[in-house]
């Protein structure tokens, strides 16, 4: 009985590997932007939540002292009794005044142009105005 040599092809051809690479590239090109768009949306939601929390803290400061801190004192008045307020009940924040999700300090004005005070983030670009992630996030 003659022996037949059986040749087994183990592995992939270069063409098969290129097709798989193209498919992976197309998927990454579609999924990647969607993923990073969601990250941008979550940073905006985080900034809105932090502004809401800071508003509540400012309200507590006002209840204790009878007024909001002035612009010159800013949000630091929530952590330190720099104005030697008699009824100051702080520090009002456990971990200090946070920066916005992009690492910029929150902006605070008292008196405000849109209410008793203005509290806002300048967004990702750190500049006034903008759109999408770079849009200002405000308390008003």
TrEMBL record:
Keyword tags: Cell inner membrane, Cell membrane, Membrane, Methylation, Transmembrane, Transmembrane helix
Entry similarity comment: Belongs to the GSP G family.
TM region(s), chain numbering: 12-32
Presence of the UniProt keyword Ligase in the record: no
Record-annotated Type II secretion system protein GspG C-terminal domain positions: 35-140
Keyword Signal: no
Localization per record: Cell inner membrane
Bilayer topology term: Single-pass membrane protein
The organism's place on the tree of life at top rank: Bacteria
Protein name listed in UniProt: Type II secretion system core protein G
